[in-house]
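CHAP domain protein (Streptococcus infantis SK1076), 206 aa
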Amino acid sequence: MQKATDPFESAKYWSEHYEGVLLSDGQTKLEKLEKDSKKWYEVFKGTIESDGSSGGNAIAGSLDVPAGEVAREIPSGYSIDKEITKDGYITQSYPYGECTWYVFNRAKEFGINFDPYMGNGQDWAHKSGYEVSNTPTKHSAVSFQGRQAGGHPTYGHVAFVEDVKDDGSILISECNFVQSGQGTGITNYRVFTADQAKEFLYVTGK
């Protein structure tokens, strides 16, 4: 199979050489083919390794969600590297279903460790011994300060960075986000633009 770096060219090649459909047959609408190829390229971008093999268990989203809004499904254009099942999640010092409980355990699914005593959501960014910056990285914890991004005025909030796009926008997953109205132990997703993402503090696990 040929390899292409341009989604439109790849779609045309597939149509001619693998589906046996000539581009001049009057059935193929090139404008729609180009639009669709670019759309699906963005959806699956980053989920396939450069050698053409699967990037693992990456799951791409398909739900159109405005930045900042709560979603129960993965938003379109973003993906997560592993399914969220909560199997084997432990409490340690974090109460079941809280945002801290979720991030502590979600990170462990990727072999990333955070201290069992990181504190409340906003305290994670101030825990000694951890690298903290305003630059988002995949599989880091994002520590919201106070009411930032809808966090609790006293305790703040913490979430897990599932995806970081080339444009700087991010996808987070989280539990017990009060404004979502979903309740304890319920996972949801939110997307933030690059400008929004720069305002947050990201904590790198060990």
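The radius of gyration is 20 Å. Strands lie at 59-60, 79-80, 131-133, 141-144, 157-164, 170-175, 187-192, 201-204. ok done for today
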